[in-house]
Structure formats: structure tokens, C-alpha cells
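On clarity, I found the account of how folds are encoded harder to follow than it need be. Since the whole study asks how a given chain folds, the encoding of that fold should be made plain. For the editor and my fellow referees, an illustration may be useful. An entry of this sort, consisting of the sequence and the corresponding C-alpha cells, reads as follows:

:::
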Amino acid sequence: MDEQLYGEAVSLQEHPFASQWNHNTHYYPMLAACIPDSTDRVLDVGCGEGTFCRYVETGKRVVVGADLDSSVLATSVGEMTSVVASAEALPFEDESFAAVTMTMVLHHVHAEQAIAEAGRVLTPGGVLLILDFGRYGGLRDAPHELRDVVTHRVVSRRMRAWDPPSVQADPRDTWADSRAMVRNALPGCTYRRLPMWRYLVKWRKPRAT
């Protein structure tokens, strides 16, 4: 577990967020790796203070962060800008971003509506990435829960815990309900349950035929 980040080519010893670590930033390298290098416009919905925005801002792409909480909203720097906006009503034109990310957003909002908005502003062929979590649903979740606890204890010893100022909330839906919801909202998406209480959804918007 020390050598690899769950199959990703990032070791814990060189993790870019080792000093600013939580269960979300732990997976930022994985999210960033899912965004093609050629992507010119990225939207991070629920950006908070902008940690992920700054991480994927390369100087060659425009990165926009959107968050409803203006008190924690990221400061615009370089090619990164930020706007006050709701995930369910994004103030952007159709097909205006080649990649859209949503980290720990769906359990705060009307999930289906937020997903529809993300899909609306995504260009054909663009990628939508969702990192979120679910509620314990009973014995069927027990093996994952055990893995989550053990993994957290092992990994967190090597990191410096960081708690961002964003508002937090418990998930309303179970893991199974969350999986069913995103698969229904995003036909053809991939859903992956990750260690440490997270799931990752990846969906590529179909191109017009």
C-alpha cells in the first residue's frame, strides 16, 4: 500500500497533498489523471477554496471553480477563475467545458438535477468526473467498510490531516442507492468504489451521430 496509490502511479511518499490531506485530496491525483492533457476548459463544481482548481490549472487551460458558498470561494488567479453558482443552475452556456468535476457535491444537492446541469455544460466527447460517498446500507457494505477503516488507519499515519472550511453533510443515500442513481442518470458511466469511503464515477458525453 505504501508503494502504490491503489493501482495509480502515485506513491504515498510523494503524494502532492501529503501535508494537506483528507479523503478527497487523497484522490485528486486520480481525478487529474482522468482529465486529458488536451483539455482546454475545466469546470470544478463545488470548488470550495479551490485546491483542486489550482492543482489542474496548467497555464495552458482555463479552469473555472463554482461554489454556492461565497465565504469559502476560491480566489481567481492566473487562468483560474471562480463564480458563485449553484450546482443545480450553472450560469454557463451549453457545451462550454471539456471536463467537469464534482467532488463531494451530490449529497448536498438535488443529485439528478446537478448531474443534468453538468452534462448540459459539457462538450460532446467531454468527461464528467464525480467523487462522492454513500451511507452504510447494512451487511452488504460490511466488507467495504472494513477495507475503508483499515486503509484509513494505514494511510493517514503518513499524512498531515487537513480540514477545509467547506460545509459538510452526511450522505442521504446508501452506497447501493447512489450507484443506481448515477447509472440511471449517466448511461454508460463507470462506477468504482474506492477505499476510504469514496466512489468515483466517470462518464464521457456521447458525440452527436
About this structure: Residues 1-10 have pLDDT under 50 and may be disordered. The CA atoms of residues 21 and 27 lie 10 Å apart.
